[in-house]
Write a structure and sequence with these properties.
heterodimer; A: 143 residues; B: mainly alpha
């Protein structure tokens, strides 16, 4: 086993445990901190893959910007001491609401145009992404 | 003797391989040893810089400063350090214990991490990654996270307010800092710090982009939260800021991080704008480059202390005005000016400098004109607000 493999294994274990703790932790702030640890672990994986730019951007964008934003939100929501663990009771609500929502999306009088426009936009973005990422004939599938 | 750093590294490598270690393992081990040595030297350096700063600020304020322990009070910091070590580390009631203890470590880590990419001499640097400048930005703001965690976990309103202030300050001053960091990237065509230093031969970037250098310097001082931007620990408003609940060595870590960061901004300014280790004969004799680097860093660090001893603390609205109304637009315009002029002039050496300086002068003139106009309009509005009677004095009664 090489050193790289040892480092990768340790990192992978840390990422997995931290990711589990993000959803398992009852404290909102702790969950945010575990999320930061997960993202830091992903940055280490990028380093191991010799993608230094991605690693640094991972730290800059996720750990710094998003995590701090999230931490600020958690600070503002001081009323939320812990996340609710009981699922809300929607047994009598779910069926008609979902039904109405589904019908409203395809109803000509309601949201069908917005729904279709959003679908076309997403499809265009998807096709564009595939086109950009598609390997060209010259590069021989190198991509 | 010209290049002792490579010599030492080679000697240790030969020694370890001679002990029968695997060459691949030796490389990894040497990296760890290098990191440990760099971090240790950096942290021990603060013993000296804290003494230097106290002594210099004392001189500026017409005092003597520490002068009891050791010659010229040199060992004062060590005495203070021992005192801090013997103190109990208190964790306040209701605090988030683990987060509370991790926070100072993160802050120190973010500062020491910056030293990994700085080229001290042509052959003396931790690692040469091709995204060095981006690395500085991202690692530097991990410290923000530490401060946030400290304020969050202390279970103290003042600590929370202090942390809020710090994060707001750091986030907003990161904007002009990053924009001014784009200038060396643009001029050298690389984000690697070694390439940036090599591109400053023979012209240092400070002669090409003095405004960007100044903005970087000012906004890094604000990032560290040093005087005159030390609102983070304005005693009269929020007691001690985010580290109010910390005692003993946990406080010591924040303290060390702040002083080390102050020296680190001097180091970064020298690397990015003042030519790093560049100097006569530095590329043939790397040890000479190391001394040039030290001298330049000391001069910039002296300026940092000088600013601290001279300027009073800035008010918070002035602070935000300076950032958003002056530094951010100015850094953007300076970036555009530098890019356009660099494209127009094709000569690599000193030939392009006069044109760049001319552009800088025009920019400064426009900035001061805009600031004057703004100040005049503010003054006019305030005068009208303070005594509206002055504009239309009551007419004297003709009957009397």
């Amino acid at each position: 086993m090489t050193i790289l493999q040892i480092i990768f294994l340790v990192t992978a274990i840390v990422i997995t445990v931290a990711a589990l703790m993000v959803v398992a932790s009852p404290n909102l702030v702790h969950a945010a901190l575990w999320l930061i640890l997960t993202l830091a672990g992903v940055a280490v994986v990028f380093v191991l893959l010799e993608a230094s730019f991605l690693a640094v951007v991972q730290v800059a964008v996720y750990i710094d910007a998003i995590a701090i934003l999230f931490g600020g939100l958690a600070l503002l929501l001081t009323q939320v001491q812990g996340l609710p663990t009981e699922p809300p009771d929607i047994s009598d609500l779910a069926e008609p609401t979902l039904d109405a929502l589904g019908k409203a999306l395809v109803d000509v009088d309601q949201y069908v145009i917005a729904f279709e426009v959003a679908s076309v936009l997403l499809l265009a973005a998807l096709i564009g992404a595939i086109f950009v990422a598609r390997p060209t004939a010259e590069s021989g599938g190198e991509g | 003797m010209a290049d002792p750093f490579t010599l030492i590294a080679d000697w240790i490598r030969e020694l370890l391989i001679g002990f029968g270690l695997d060459p691949g393992f030796t490389v990894v081990l040497l990296k760890f040893v290098g990191a440990a040595v760099t971090a240790t030297i950096a942290l021990f350096l603060t013993f000296f810089t804290i003494w230097l700063e106290r002594k210099l600020v004392a001189r500026i304020q017409d005092r003597l400063g520490p002068n009891r322990v050791g010659p010229y009070g040199l060992f004062q910091t060590i005495a203070d350090f021992l005192k801090l070590l013997t103190k109990e580390v208190l964790v306040p009631q209701g605090a988030d214990r683990l987060v509370f203890m991790i926070a100072p470590l993160l802050v120190v880590m973010s500062v020491v991490g910056l030293w990994a990419v700085v080229p001290f001499a042509p052959t003396l640097f931790g690692t040469d990654i091709n995204v060095g400048i981006l690395y500085i930005v991202s690692i530097g703001s991990v410290g923000t996270l530490g401060i946030m965690m400290a304020g969050l976990s202390s279970n103290n309103k003042y600590a929370l307010l202090g942390a809020f202030r710090t994060v707001a300050l750091m986030l907003s001053y990161a904007v002009p800092m990053i924009i001014s960091l784009l200038v060396p990237t643009l001029l050298s065509g690389s984000m690697g710090l070694n390439d940036v230093v090599r591109a400053q031969d023979p012209v240092w970037f400070v002669f090409i982009a003095p405004i960007a250098a100044l903005i970087f310097f000012v906004s890094s001082i604000a990032e560290v939260g040093r005087a005159p931007f030390d609102l983070v620990e304005a005693e009269s408003e929020i007691v001690a800021g985010f580290h109010i609940e910390y005692s003993g060595m946990t406080f010591g870590l924040f303290f060390v991080a702040e002083f080390l960061h102050a020296f680190t901004i001097a180091v970064l300014t020298v690397t990015l704008f003042l030519g790093g280790w560049q100097g006569p004969g530095a590329s043939t004799y790397p040890i000479l480059g190391f001394f040039y680097f030290l001298i330049k860093s000391s001069v910039v660090y002296f300026t940092v202390i000088w600013i601290r001893g001279t300027f009073p603390r800035v008010r918070i609205d002035h602070l935000n005005n300076l950032n958003w109304k002056v530094l951010t637009p100015l850094s953007l315009v300076a970036l555009i000016f530098t890019a356009v002029i660099e494209k127009l002039t094709d000569s690599p050496g000193w030939g392009r400098v006069p044109l760049h300086l001319l552009g800088t002068l025009i920019l400064l003139f426009l900035t001061f004109a805009a600031l004057r106009a703004y100040a005049r309009s503010v003054r006019k509005k305030e005068e009208g607000f303070m005594n509206p009677a002055r504009k239309s004095p009551p007419a004297p009664d003709p009957a009397s």
